[in-house]
Amino acid sequence: METPVANEAALKYIAVAGPTASGKTAAALAIAREHAVEIISVDSALVYRGMDIGTAKPSASELASVRHHLIDIRDPLQAYSAAEFVTDAQQLMADIHARGKLPLLVGGTMLYFKALMVGMDAMPKADPALRAAIEAQARTQGWAALHAELARVDPVTAQRLHPADSQRIQRALEVFRASGQPLSSFHSTHARAAAADGDTVTGSLLISLEPADRAWLHQRIAQRFDAMLEAGLIGEVKGLRARGDLHADLPSMRCVGYRQSWEALDGQWPMAELRDKGIFATRQLAKRQLTWLRSMPQRQTVACDAPDALAQVLARVRAFVTDQP
Fold first, then answer.
1. What's the average model confidence in pLDDT over 297-321?
2. Do residues 40 and 95 touch, judged by C-beta distance below 8 A?
3. How far apart are CA 60 and CA 131, in angstroms?
4. For 271, which DSSP code?
5. What is the rounded CA–CA span in Å between residue 261 and residue 278?
6. Alpha carbon distance 154, 147 (integer Å)
7. H-helix or E-strand containing 303?
8. What is the pLDDT of residues 53-82, one digit of tens each?
9. Buried b vs exposed e over 88-101: b needs ≥16 C-beta within 10 Å?
10. 192 CB-near residues (< 8 Å, 6+ apart)
């Protein structure tokens, strides 16, 4: 069974994608000041309630300035999949069109974007027994060894994953062991079909914020993580731990920043190392996001570190809106 791709009318949208700290929220709010839009969050961390500081969730005033969707829709104990996102986003896009507005999809979870744009073959569901076996293997051999195993059975997925990215390595190996097929094969069927059709969807605009100078993005990432620490990230994670029903292996607690904070509070390494580990993990996330973006040839790239980046974004949106019937 395959994730259905919405019809052309339902897919009419503007999208702003980019790595973390590239200025997506500011661009989205600027677009919303000029055009009748509603924002659909494309972010696997913003779906969780009570996770505000470490996700750089839009402020109350920003949320009030334009209608937002798919933020605070799950408890951190719950999972949220790409397939669920596609279903929710397609319904929201239809509703937004019915209100006479354009959907504005904004975020950095590239799997969600790709699933929405080209679809995904249905993957095997999570298998607790397989997952436990993989975790046991990791405890004895280390995640680097499992990454090497993944490189043998699914080199495409292994190439885009860091050897320490345990969550994604685990899922990729789980999919392979359950189905005998590499995870990358489930992402490729619709992508090949889309490429044969020119890999474009009439009525859509995908703007990709990508830095010309990676050092600029690294500086922004460091500034953002420092701001999170100052705003009380550790206290937020302590509050989540105090619930008693959350644990480090949940998808919510594996989000960048939360995972490193949880491990520091567990005493896995000194709290003084949290800043460096959090910044490094965020840089790795940004690198993966940029790799995903480069696989989307339909995107229109704007250098987010250019002095006129916001003006470029707005100009492209104006041209798109003007050309729409």
1. 96
2. no
3. 38
4. G
5. 8
6. 10
7. strand 300-303
8. 999 999 999 999 999 999 999 999 998 888
9. bbbebbeebbeeeb
10. none
